[in-house]
Amino acid sequence: MKRILTIQDISCLGKCSITIALPVISALGTETVILPTAVLSNHTLFKSFTVKDLADQIEPICEKWVEEGVEFDAIYTGYLGTIEQIDMMKDLFKTFKRGDDTIVFVDPVMADNGKLYPAFDMDYARKNAELCSCADIIVPNITEASIMTGMEYKEEYDESYIREMLERLTKLGAEISVLTGVSLSEGKTGVMGYDKKNDEIYCYQNDKVGAMFHGTGDLFSSTVIGEIMKGKSWKDAMRIAADYTAHTIEVTMNNPKKPWYGVDFEATIPDLLSME
Ligand code: PXL
Questions:
Q1: Residues of 170-209 as b/e, b for ≥16 C-beta within 10 angstroms?
Q2: Nearest-atom index, ligand 1, CA of 40
Q3: Does the CB atom of residue 218 touch ligand 1 within 6 A?
Q4: Residue 218 alpha carbon to ligand 1 centre in Å
Q5: Distances 222 to 36, 58, 81, 90 between C-alpha atoms, Å
Q6: pTM attached to this predicted model
Q7: Residues 109 and 78: beta-carbon distance below 8 Å
């Protein structure tokens, strides 16, 4: 069985980061080792939250794993929290990356809808761009990519804007850059990615569901890396993850008792397992 290490916060309430990655990747059949970067009462889009930084645990935990000789087929980072932790990730990659046998997958979670999340500033954003340069695959949304590439954030754009963004993201260093939340025509949304080595662009659009929910970026990323671990190509993994995320938003919208803070992915995991 493949084994992933995922490094993100635990938001006890809120359906995001580890509370999505662990069930989704496990359900897709990959052992999911977690390294929590912080424990929060709830995610930061609630009106307030508590946070306990766990940075001082990262090194000792990794030392134990080194003693055990544990190996990972992928390392997936999401919401980290501090610049210090981003720096620690670079060392962690050096410790656990076994050349091409370990995929480093970075979701530079820090912003959406044109704005940084409440806990972050531009210094954090610059560090996140550095982290992306150590990755094999990166999956920013348009807001994160605009901040990291210095491009203007636009809500209306054409394909040439996205292509330029992908080109600039590629220059950060990762082999494959995938942009999420890309809408290339009225009523559509999806993803567009570029594979530097094979000089290959891939675009996938599905119907836009008329609502935005928190945690969908984490759902998308967890599905992409889970599908890659199952042996899918990055393009098939992206397509399945885009379809699964859209399906989950639709199911959530149809739930009259839906929580405002996240999607009902628990209801749709069985559907994911048969998606090809
Ligand atoms: O889903 C991204 C995310 C993860 N973790 C925490 C967050 C957010 C987005 O706001 O606040 C703590």
A1: bebbbbbbbbbbbbeeeeebbbbbbbbeeeeebbbbeeeb
A2: 12
A3: yes
A4: 9
A5: 15, 21, 19, 21
A6: 0.97
A7: yes
CB of residue 263 inside a 6 A radius of ligand 1: no
Probe target for ligand 1 pocket from 107, 117, 128, with the most ligand atoms within 8 Å of CB: 117
Q: What was the pLDDT predicted at 212?
A: 86
**Which pLDDT tens digit goes with each residue over 224-264?**
999 999 999 999 999 999 999 999 999 999 999 999 999 99
Reference 263, options 86, 53, 15; nearest CA is 15
Tokens, residue 136: 């094999």
46-105 pLDDT per residue, tens: 999 999 999 999 999 999 999 999 999 999 999 999 999 999 999 999 999 999 999 999
